[in-house]
Structure prediction request, 182 residues.
Amino acid sequence: MRVLLHTCCAPCASHCVLALQELGHDVTLFYSNANIAPHDEFLRRLDAVRLLADRVRVPLLVDEPDHDAWLREAACGFEREPERGARCARCFRYSLCRTREAMTAHGLDAFTTSLTVSPHKHTPTLFQVGRDLDAARFLTIDFKKRDGFKHSLHLAEAFGLYRQKYCGCEFSYRTESSVPKL
Prediction:
């Protein structure tokens, strides 16, 4: 099966792409992260995803980010929500919708997300969003299983991948003083 892997970042995707390949899938990475701010951070993470794609020899599709559209569609009115709250579910929907559209446009068979490898993301919410968008073609794989997150840490170090310190959006910072200038 030809699978489009929504790629939140290179470290998380490292384990996911190898796990999908072990299952016999042909994988294409899809870097779609309009939520990431500032734009320099988006580019830094993209460089790491390009390095990963080269290392594991898989194609990479890059979705041009529209942070303003993401703010309107996913964050507006939910800026004060905590991590793992309603804003995150809306962000998941935004990104997975983009992934489903790219899967269809490129004639691929299925899609899934690297977000499920993170212990910081609520996997049941991700699964529900994916099934709501396209139950027949969304692969409900919890990449945390079988020490997936631990494996992703090892792979990130082995491949020399940049590891970020926050989810990506300006609302995911813990304190005001840690927010970089946008």
User: Anything to note?
Assistant: Residues 86-105 form the longest helix (20 residues). The chain is about 45% helix and 10% strand. Strands lie at 2-6, 26-31, 60-62, 110-113.
